[in-house]
Amino acid sequence: MNKFIKTEKEIQSLRRGGRILAQVLQEVARAVKPGVVSIDLNNLAEDRLRALGARPSFLHYQSEDLIYPASLCVSVNSEVVHGLPNQEKILKEGDIVSLDLGCWYEGVCTDHAITISVGQASPLAKKLIKITKTALAEALKKVKANAFTGDIGEAVQVYVEAQGFSVVRQLTGHGVGRAVHEPPSVPNFGQAGTGTKLLAGMVLAIEPMVNAGGYEVKTLADGWTVVTVDNSLSAHFEHTVLVTNQGYEILTGI
Ligand code: MF3
Ligand code: CO
Q1: Ligand nearest 68 Cα, by number?
Q2: I need a surface site. Which of 32, 48, 63, 196 has the fewest CB within 10 A?
Q3: Which residues of the chain have pLDDT under 50?
């Protein structure tokens, strides 16, 4: 895992790129309201990234024989992640939506996601968002040189399940920086003391995905959109963080 440790120069660029990414995602979030068309959110994200000198990292991202056709992932209600923005997917009052965006800047990339309500959402939806956001905070508390990826997974799983929700197991967080997805994998479940040992200078995308029902998910026929099998609501938060000897530094903050 040593070869994934970032140089000081890369870290400086990750800080600048991560700040741009967070600013743009916040602008996109401010545009969310009932009636908004998901493709317009995608285009806003892409235009704003380019205006600030960054490039969308998900656009034309290749995974096996599939190519992601957009810059932003827009995942609504029972959609977990990788929801495709298009002309037909229109947000309505009471929906919850995960907005997931990545960018390249000065040769390195960062990854960031938030889930928000569209207008007024149900108490269950609001609770799910709050628990998922706190699950990411619980995960971050574990990040420090010499900790293990399993420490993060256990913290997320224990917290989320105590709230009566479940953690998606088929998808994980990941290393990031020189590629959109790098080792190590960062599961949101598991056992402390297992997995990969963290080293100062590693950069991780930590991204709990939490379902109101069961943890099972499946991918739709479009090849990308991941949904809950039981149709329950799902939420997702993600930060790119630098591992340090003292703990961590959030790179996708403002
Ligand atoms: N944050 C997501 C992930 O890490 C975004 C990837 S979308 C893709 O899986 F198109 F790039 F795959
Ligand atoms: Co990610």
Answers
A1: 1
A2: 63
A3: none
pLDDT given at position 33: 98
What is the residue range of 148's domain? 8-250
Ligand 1 atom at shortest distance from the alpha carbon of 68: 10
Is 3 within a domain?
no
In a domain, 167, yes or no: yes
Determine which residue's CA is closest to atom 8 belonging to ligand 1: 58
Closest ligand (CA of 57): 1
pLDDT in tens, 78-120: 999 999 999 999 999 999 999 999 999 999 999 999 999 999 9
pLDDT for the residue 221: 97
Ligand 1 contacts (CB < 6 A) are: 58, 61, 63, 68, 73, 82, 100, 102, 111, 113, 180, 205, 238
**What is the reported pTM?**
0.98
Query: What is the number of domains present in the chain?
Result: 1
